[in-house]
Prior knowledge:
Structural class: alpha/beta
CATH topology of the largest domain: TIM Barrel
Distance between the termini: 86 Å
Amino acid sequence: MPTFVHLHTHTHYSLLDGANRIGDLAETAKAYDMPALAMTDHGNLFGAIEFYKTVKSTGLKPIIGSELYVAAGSRKEKRPPRAGDRADQTTHFLLLAQNATGYRNLMKLSSSGYLEGFYYRPRVDMELLEAHSEGLIALSACAKGIVANHVVGDQMDMAKEKVKKLREIFDGRFYLEVQDHGLEFDQKINNAMIDFARTFDLPLVATNDAHYLNREDAPAQDVLVCIQTGKELNDPKRLKFTTDQLYFKTAGEMAHLFGHLPGAIENTVKIAESIEFEMEFGKLKYPQFPLPAGFATLDEYLRKLAFDGLHERYRTISPELTERLEFELGVIGRMGYPGYFLIVADFVRFAREQKIPVMARGSAVGCLVAYTLGITNVDPVSYGLLFERFLNPERISMPDIDIDLEFRQREKVINYVVEKYGKDSVAQIITFGTMGAKAVIRDVGRVLGMSYAEVDHIAKLVPGDLHITLDKAMTQSAELKQINDAGGTKSQLIGYAKTLEGLARHASVHAAGVVIAPGDLTDYVPLYKPSNKEDVVTQYTGEYMEDVGLLKMDFLGLKNLSVIQDSLAMIRENTGKDLDLESVPMDDRKTFEMFAKGETAGIFQFNSPWLYDYLRRLKPSCVEDLIAMNALCRPGPLQGGMVDDFIDRRHGRKEVTYTHPILEKTLKETYGVIVYQEQAMQIARDMAGYTLGRADLLRRAISKKKPEVMAVEKKNFIEGSVKNDIDQGIAEKIFDLIEFFSGYAFNKSHSAAYGVVAYREGYLKVHYPKEFMAALLSNEMSDTDEIVTLINECRKMGVRVLPPDVNKSQKEFTVEDEAIRFGLCAIKNVGAGAVDSIIRARGEYGTFVDIYALCEHIDLRLTNKRVLESLIQAGACDTLEGDRAQMMEALDAAIDMAQTNQSDRDKGQTSLFDMGGSAPVVLHRPTLPTVPRWSPSQALALEKEVLGFYVSGHPLAEFEDELRAFTTAEIKRLDQVRDRDEDVVVGGIVIEIKPIVDRKGKSMAFVTIEDFSGTGEVLVFSDQYELHRTLVATDSLILVRGQISAKEGEKKVVASEIMSLEDARNRLARAVHLTVAPDQTTDAMIQTLQETFRTYPGECEVFFHVRTEEYGDVRIRAGEGIRVTPARELLHCVRETLGPDRARIAGGSLRSSDSGWSVTGNGGNGNGHGRFRQGGGRIEGRNARTEA
């Protein structure tokens, strides 16, 4: 059987062109008995390390290469090629690394293509090829190759010149490629290559331009190219491969194609055998940290800084502190990492000097050296954190200190590092977006020309689980499987999607990763430059930086640090107080009361509705409780019931027990539950005599869940425990507990860092609510949903948010007296330059009186008509003369007049002063036009358009009573509903309707509704859609009863009944509840209320909620003869009498014969016990909770 090696192979890192997965290629090459395999992606080396390690693990020889793009002239010349001139086109050229020198040259060539020659493609040129040819084997590439392109264009003299030149550059290492894909020009090219081989005494090599694994994958790769080019499959003008032969062929298939050229097949093996390149992994290549005068070694300087920091951090230096610091410094020194710590400490110091908020997270928080150097801000000793979780003395691994920075100034710190170590030595790190299960369905659906609604429906059938695959999704969604099995276009969609799922779609810059080299980075990694960006990034992802041996750090821009910085700045401005958050008391009662009430909207790590409930149940009273909740409130512990167990133990509802007394010391702080990974390590130390380093190896082994490893670990643990006089059975039981909980346990160091930040934000929210909420709103201006949530939170906190105002607003949200003023940059279409112009004009000319004055004084080059329209629609001009409709009508004239005046001023002409003297001339401004006012609904709709929400009102404001009484969930908060089997009732205004046709040919719809919490989706099946088609219309106000469905990923309500919100009050109201203050229970007040009740007779019961000294909060039902209608006028009269928010309606439990509705609204019934007569009413419930 012939032997053959594929030397021209594209993986999926030939983005949106290659459809080969590296693992599949390696396994198939092995199955085909091929001794080696090459990777030659277009212009890049993205997958080189992954490819090398994967192929090596199968026992084959990996060959690292790339099919480079070569510019027709200089790589620095960036212009379109001359039409029809093949000599002016960019071509392909394939290079393989023969040895380490060749690999380094290949990295430099690929890097130069992106950094110097990028023009639609990363291009090199002949100058670069000459400079970096050593150690590289060259192949002439495909039909678009550096030689073949001339052959196709009948430019044979040019083709020969290229062959001669390349033979000269790659002396003895240049091969002419022959390919046979059944394409139009294959034979013409092959004949020319055979001729050139004879003429120039060059070897031939047979290749197949493998873009996909199997022949049947050709249509899917065609779809992939359509995704790349943005075309539909049925577009006759699209880029298309007219062959299905670009697959990974067997040696037999290749021998059959090139039987007449046996040497071309044999040369593939000869080339593979000539490759003598082994990647070197794990050898550290740290940059040199410059030592100050007086220090001979890095260890010496690190020790000096660490002990200086120890004395700054601690008032009393105990022997235990000194011993721990000495131990950590010893481990760091032995492992060769002093330079790493000094580099990190240096740029953290720089950040602090520049007043840039900075903190470390992750396991590094457990390192005392990092704390003394100022890298971390959490005392690892006080919180019981372990150094060995960060840096294990018994396992050589690179340290990893993750740094969070105020996100707006992240670049400033990176620039400092670049300046210190050189721009050629520092880069950010690449990351790849892949085609996930939902995304690939949408991509393929577009290519197939399917409607958005159809594709959206199928995509939403895929559960929203992390790392879900289409195969797994079909085991969870019967409808998705049915679509796949049914045949037709939708089945074809899923088939293509399964083939392409998981392939790399695009490259981008990692949010945090930065790498520093001891010299030119291209000696160690190839570089990439995203189009239209100045960032230089590595071509290898962060997970391979340890293999390369380079220093990698995470510089994550954290928005919450910006919130803290902005809060402190506003506190300083408004109060004159320079608050130091690191000095605030960590046991503030009011702060923990806020956490215990679950009022943590906007608080870092606790800003989630489902968390509010857990906090209310836990009632945290110390930072340790917050740290524990941060660790527990993750998918594993939540699904395993650990959070409920922890809370029950915390409050004594469950007994805290320990399998052995030795566990109490470690597990007491978490009530006998293993919450942290560090606890598992401490148990192994205390029970089985492990060192903490050895215990960390146990932790790692358990996390990998390899049965053979686990068996050895369990044996060692039990033997160690027995030596410590612990019963074997108990030791086995405890090991099983460690193994079980380790699947859920979290890194305590990371939780501690974030728990402390959460507490400090909570402190700000409680003690400086206006400043904190203004900072939060400013940092969320691009997220409309979050702005809505935060404004609602302000309302709950009693903090007013004032509307935008061109005469008072700044760019961001600001504190104004006892309120928050809306920021102008939160308005759609209004940029920072425009706002600067408004603020500058306001400062120079004073308050704007009308739209003419506004246009007159601002810079209209920065503040154009679209900006001004948005300002008017948002209500930001409401303090000017006239109404919004008048200002909008006058805008064109105002702009024209202002432009004329500004132009005159620029020319030195003035109409402001009389030429004969200095008395100012008053400019005549026309009066505002007389036009009809916008209706309230029109004004609100335009507000929503430019703000994303309503400021001056809400379409639902009139129905706030109904929503409060009859809904049981907010549409944006469906996650908060605990019992998914119970019906929910939601209500709001219909924003959007997406009708589709179901499998039976009937109409159904996905309906988006909005309430005060935001927007959400209601699924209306055909029966309800037909019944309520007039109700299900844009701008309709509706109530919907149904069950929550999460089977399509995003939670929605599946409607079982729909009702008009206008009808709800009369159909569903069963009671009116009044809250009465003790000083209002006078005869005169009661008489006034009775007269009001008589004016509005009806069927609803009346309940009074009164606080009494004897019984606390009680509910009193009015006499049997008192029944009222739930009219708005009634509630208005009562609120006028008792005060705002002192009256509300409530639904009772009912089953209406005409609708089948069952509603117990948020008003609900009392939960007290006992009943007795008092006056004309009846008290129900001793110490009952007031419900108003």
